[in-house]
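Hi R.,

Here's the chain you asked about this morning:
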Amino acid sequence: MNADQNHKPVSIRILLADDHTIMRQGLRALLERQEGLTIVGEANNGHEAVELFRRHRPDVVLSDIEMPQMDGVTALAAIRSEYVDARGLLLTMHAREGDIVRAMRAGALGYVLKDAPLDTLLE
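And the predicted structure, written out as tokens:
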């Protein structure tokens, strides 16, 4: 883990975006148990994710691919159009090739299947 000048651990700030409340709450509960991870916001759709990114400037956006109003890929592309260094990781139930290609073109670091073990997400 990185440290600042005072040798305090640096926390990775995460924005969660998923239209399923239980999924977001579950991710928050699991991730906040990990040392060095902090959830700075939760979005219910892509539009909210873009707005919350502007407000909180997280280190990573962890977003569902499929959401109402604006999907996760479109939201990540919008975020990266304003903040070129923004980092995003997308969650999906199905590894459809078209979605994955769109995600990578939008600048996603990668994707994780929702049924993957927590260790896979943490990596």
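The beta strands are 12-17, 37-43, 60-64, 88-92, 110-113.

Let me know if you need anything else.
M.
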